[in-house]
């Protein structure tokens, strides 16, 4: 006998299961887009910097309007400063995209080094189950960050586009796998009854 929760669970599972093809289609589209980004990594990097700059600029303008709408609030000056900084950073990324590529790659390399060191040292210190994998992952991040820093400014031309393309490929592959798994899944009624 199905309860109302079981009925809604069964209906939800059936709804997701029936759209397995959309998961596969989106996954294939992301794999193709990721491959294009990897092949044209310089163009993808430049497009990413421009898109990020425009998002910051539009966000800065919106935040500026919000700051003046709430000017009686005690945090007005902090809100105003944040809006101006966001908008100015967006303008600089749009106006000087090559410098933006360089600075974003420098920031990413620094994050990889610092994050990798914390992950490796933390894993070696805490020694949780299978800690070696986390330590190796941290060490790989540190090596990648050092390689990026060592190859600046050349690495700033291709790395962001390559990383975004790689992310799209892996996200797309996971969506394809999810869609295929959903296609082979039992119906919601069978799932809810179990």
Which short descriptors sum up this protein?
single chain; mainly alpha; 194 residues
Provide structural commentary.
The protein has 8 helices and no strands. By secondary structure, it is mainly α. Helix 2 (about 20-40) runs antiparallel to helix 7, helix 3 runs antiparallel to helix 4 and helix 3 (about 40-70) packs across helix 5. The termini are close together.
Topology, pairings included?
Elements: H1 4-18, H2 20-39, H3 41-69, H4 76-95, H5 97-126, H6 131-150, H7 154-183, H8 188-193
Report the C-alpha radius of gyration, rounded: 23 Å
Main sheet attributes: strand count, strand direction, barrel closure: none
Q: Span between N and C termini? A: 11 Å
Q: Could you state the order of secondary-structure elements as H and E? A: HHHHHHHH
State which percent range the strand residues make up.
Answer: under 5%
* Number of helical elements: 8
Shape: extended
- Contiguous uncertain segments of 5+ residues: none
Which structural class best describes the helix and strand composition? mainly alpha
The beta-strand count equals 0
What number of structural domains do the residues give?
1
Mean pLDDT reading: 85
Helix content: over 70%
State the gist of this model.
The protein has 194 residues and is an all-alpha fold. The protein is built from eight helices and no strands.
